């Protein structure tokens, strides 16, 4: 388990470094193109690499491809594979919060609701990774009123916090 996490972290860091180098190369080519179109002299910091960059520019298509970022790769399989969403609450949820989470389950397709119990968030995230769950939504409350959503895309994806104000439930 620990080896797998280390391997995933290495793969993530390697892909981030490759992305940074591709982005830097793309920007250098763009600067060379702009200089050649305007007829200005080559900048001094690019003179050593100018010959190789010109050769690469000549081999490319008319419209250069913008390098993809990690965020694009993270969501590349979104249309191919159905997302699996896990909804959970704070440790000791009130009745109003459990009703709110039941309503959220209807809102998010392919979602599963889990009673958190005494589990720590890190344990929940690990179990989500093991069961190929793509997104985790954690609902918080304050004095019986839902006041926040934490949405996290797994395994490395972005995490967002949404504050909830004036949440109104069903009156029926």
TrEMBL record:
Molecular function terms from GO: rRNA primary transcript binding; snoRNA binding
Domain Brix: 83-172
Entry's Gene Ontology BP terms: rRNA processing
Taxonomy, superkingdom: Eukaryota
Pfam families in UniProt: Brix (PF04427)
InterPro entries: Brix, IMP4/RPF1
Gene Ontology CC terms, in alphabetical order: Mpp10 complex; small-subunit processome
Coiled-coil ranges from the UniProt annotation: none
PANTHER family: U3 SMALL NUCLEOLAR RIBONUCLEOPROTEIN PROTEIN IMP4
Name of the molecule in the record: Brix domain-containing protein
